[in-house]
Amino acid sequence: VAWGYEGDIGPCNWHKYFPKAGGKRQSPIDIDTSATQYDGSFKPLRIHYDSHMCSSLTNNGHTFCMSVNSDQCNLSGGPLEDKYRLLQFHCHWGSDDTKGSEHTVDGHQYAAELHLVHWNTDKFKSADEAIEKNQGIAVLTAFIKAGKEHRGWNHVLSHFKDIKKVQGTSTVNEDFNPKCLLPENQTDYWTYEGSLTTPPCHESVRFIIFKEVVEVSSEQLAQFRSLCVCSSRKRDTGEDEHLVDNFRPIQPLNGRVVKASFQ
Ligand SMILES: Cc1c(Cl)c([N+](=O)[O-])nn1CC(=O)Nc1ccc(S(N)(=O)=O)cc1
Ligand SMILES: [Zn+2]
Fold first, then answer.
1. Would the CB of 115 count as within 6 Å of ligand 1?
2. Which residues have CB under 8 Å from 69's CB, separation 6+?
3. Which residue's alpha carbon is at the smallest distance from atom 17 of ligand 1?
4. Which of 62, 150, 155, 242 is catalytic?
5. Handedness of CA 19, 114, 214, 162 (dihedral sign)
6. Residue 239 Cα, ligand 2 centroid: separation in angstroms?
7. What does the alpha-carbon distance between residue 38 and residue 196 come to, in Å, rounded to a whole number?
8. Would residue 52 show up in a list of annotated catalytic residues for this protein?
9. What is the pLDDT of residues 35-70, one digit of tens each?
10. Full DSSP string of the chain
C-alpha cells in the first residue's frame, strides 16, 4: 500500500493500512531531558565496522538507503543484550535547515537525523524475521545540524547524482566506514524501546540516540533535498517533486522511560 508524509497517505492515516502505527510504543518521540533516567549499568557501546564492505545506495522514494552486506559490521554492548549486525543506513531531513529530524530534544528539532539500522543475529536468522520481533532491531541515531562541511558525508553524497530518481541504485565499493558519520562522543546517549518510524511501524526497535550533534554544511543538506520522489512521471507543474520533510511526527510516550548513559 502506498504511504507518504503528506495528504491522505500521510502519517495520520498510516494506522488504517498498518495497524501497528497505532500501537503503544511508537517512534519517534520527544526526549524530555528533565525526565530521563540515568542507568549506570550500561557497558561501553561496541561499534565494530570494517571498511572494505561493498554496499549499494538506493532512492526508495522515502529516503536514500545505503544497504550494507558485511558480516563484519557489528554492534553490541551499551543497553543491548545481544549482538547486532549493520543492515542499512538512511536519513530523514526537512525542506529547510530548521526541521527534518524525527526525534526532538526538549522540543528542539534538528535539520536531519541519521539512522544506522542493525538486526539481532543472536536471536534471529534474517533481517526480515528480526524486523518484526521485539529486540529484533537496534538503530544508532545521530542528530545533524547545519554548520561546517563533513568530509565523510561526501563519500555518500558523491553518488547522489546516480540515485536522483526513485529506484535509482548505485554500487558503492570504495573504502567507506559509516562509523565516520557518528559523533566523536559515543559514550553519552539516550535509549528507549520504540518502533520503525515508517510503515509497517513494527514495535521491534531499540533506539540509541547520541547526545552530541554532527555538523554538515548547508550545501550538503541541500544535496539531501536534491533527490526526487517521482520516477519519470512529472507532476502537473512539469517540475520534479523533491524528497523533503520525510520525518514522522512525534508519538505518545505512553509511560515509557528514556534512559541516559550519562548523568
Ligand atoms: C528488512 C529490510 C532489509 Cl533486508 C532492508 N535492506 O535495506 O536490505 N531494509 N529492510 C527494511 C528496513 O530496514 N526497514 C526500516 C524502516 C524504518 C527504519 S527507522 N526509520 O530507522 O525506524 C528502519 C528500518
Ligand atoms: Zn529512519
1. yes
2. 53, 54, 55
3. 196
4. 62
5. negative
6. 27
7. 25
8. no
9. 999 999 999 999 999 877 778 999 999 999 999 978
10. ----SSGGGSGGGHHHH-GGGGSSS-S--EE-TTS-EE-TTPEEEEEE--S---EEEEE-SSSEEEEE--TT-EEEEET-SS-EEEEEEEEEE-SSTT---SSEETTB--SEEEEEEEEETTT-S-HHHHTTSTT-EEEEEEEEEE-S--HHHHHHHTTGGGGSSTT-EEEE-SS--GGGGS-S--S-EEEEEE--SSTT--S-EEEEEESSPEEE-HHHHHHHTT-BSSSSPPPTTSSPPB-----PPP---TT---EES--
Question: What phi, psi does 157 have (nearest 5°)?
Answer: -65, -25
End-to-end alpha-carbon separation of the chain, Å? 44
C-alpha cell at 134: 521485539
The structure's pTM equals 0.97
Residue 205 cell numbers, joined: 526497535
Q: pLDDT (tens digit, 9 = 90+) per residue, 121-132?
A: 999 999 999 999
Q: How far is CA 230 from the centre of its chain?
A: 22
For residue 219, give the amino acid letter: E
Ligand nearest to the CA of 28: 1
Q: Cis before residue 11, ω within 30 degrees of 0?
A: no
Above 0.90 for ipTM, yes or no? yes
The C-alpha atoms of residue 103 and residue 156 are separated, in whole angstroms, by 23
Instruction: Select from 62, 101, 196 the residue to mutate for testing ligand 1; criterion: most ligand atoms less than 8 Å from CB.
Output: 196
CA of 136 relative to ligand 1 center, distance in Å: 11
Please name which of 237, 86, 218, 244 lies closest in space to residue 148, comparing C-alpha atoms: 218
Place of cell 559509516: 178
Q: How far is the CA of 128 from the centre of ligand 1 (A)?
A: 9
